[in-house]
Structures are given as C-alpha cells and as structure tokens.
Specification:
Order of helices and strands: EEEEEEEE
Number of strands: 8
CATH topology: 10 Kd Chaperonin, Protein Cpn10, Chain O
CATH class: Mainly Beta
Strand order of the largest sheet: 6-7-1-2-5-8
Strand content: 35-45%
Radius of gyration: 15 Å
Number of helices: 0
Length: 100
C-alpha cells in the first residue's frame, strides 16, 4: 500500500455490493445510503490538547459502515481507495464476511 493516512484519517477499500444474491445488478439509484468497506490503513490517531495521540477505534482489516457521500476518492496505481475521517465511520461489523 502506497498511501499512509495521517492523524485521524482512514484509508478504506469499498466493497462491491452492486449485485444481489440472485445475481441482479442494481443501478446506482437503488443502492443503500450506507456503504461497506474494508479498512486498509489507519493514521496515527487524534491529537489531544496535551500533545499526545489517542489511538483510533478502527484497525486494518476491519469491515466498516459509512455514509455513501463521505470521503475522498484516491487512486494508487490501478487500485481505488476512499480516504475517510474516523468520525465518518458509523460502525464496525464484527465477524462480517468480506465480499469483494
């Protein structure tokens, strides 16, 4: 991975959810407002008033939910990632199967 996020930023890889279980491809207008992604890298944490860093609550390989309109797209080589602030992440899916 050639991108190292800073501070409370997180790099995620959005998981492909465009096809239903029955194999039907959904148009963009039918997709949920929430997206699922796999955390690829995390920054060093929140900077506290005393100068120390508070660790982030998410870690590499966590599967997370976030609002679809959040983040900034970044392309590294042929891979596309999304750069989010940790506060944009709504939940971590424990034990969730990763569907790419």
């Amino acid at each position: 991975m050639d991108v190292r996020p800073l501070a409370d930023n997180v790099v995620v890889e959005v998981l492909n959810q465009e096809t239903t279980v029955a194999g039907i491809v959904l148009p963009d207008t039918a997709k949920d407002q929430l997206q699922k992604a796999r955390v690829v890298a995390v920054g060093s944490g929140h900077l506290l008033e005393n100068g120390a860093r508070a660790a982030l609550e998410v870690a590499a390989d966590d599967v997370v939910l976030f609002e679809a309109q959040r983040g900034t797209k970044v392309r590294v080589g042929s891979n596309e990632y999304l750069l989010l602030r940790e506060s944009d992440i709504l939940a971590v899916l424990n034990g969730a199967p990763v569907l790419a």
